[in-house]
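Before the break, one more example. Copy the sequence into your notebook; we will annotate it together after we see the structure.
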Amino acid sequence: MAKDLKTLREDYKQMNKSCFILGASGETGKELLKEILQTQLYSKVTLIGRRELKFEDEAYKDVKQEVVDFEKLDEYSSAFQGHDVGFCCLGTTKAKSGEAGFIRVDHDYVLKSAQLAKAGGCQHFNLESSKGADKESSFLYLRVKGEVEAEVEEIEFDRLSIFRPAVLLVDREESRPLEWLTRKLMVPVSHLFPTSYSVPIPTLVKAMLHNAILGSDKKVDLLENKAIHTLGKVWETSS
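Here is what the structure looks like once it is written out:
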């Protein structure tokens, strides 16, 4: 299995695909960028964000950055042109940004970015969503996640991969007391039910890349938490 996966990786590299990452300043985006650069899966990597990120490591020297105003994304359509693959890790919380701000980031920014990516030639769009996402949910967070999933699907990418991770296990740099407490409480639960209620961010990232190189006959891949664990673990054991 490991040998087959390594072959798939090499075949994928030979395609000289380019990719962009939305949300590279967040925990998932940072880890994703790190893994992409380590594996050298893409011939060109572009970060699209509201500010330029500073990197000291030499490994990041060829990473291109496009600074955009998410409130005026139509004026920055060129940033989304010429990428084969897109990874969307945009997201905030109601506690941090308020209800209107949360909807603006997790729905409006995501949807408009997906539309521009499609117009710019992106063939495979990867969307980080959430376990329990449902456009009919009575919970704002899950409803918004479900709504944007459905609307991005209507854009009709050649391939759309939607990832629905459960609680993300990470030592977040930004101080969010409630998340910190949740993660602490989830540690013993994650040992008892490792694929049901949580997932380490490195595992999610590895699952994203594993899924990318596998290809799919389906236009839409919906990967729940258990599938994320499976793909991520196989990637880890083959590295």
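The first strand starts at residue 18 and ends at 22. The chain has one domain: 2-167+200-238. Try to locate both features in your own notes.
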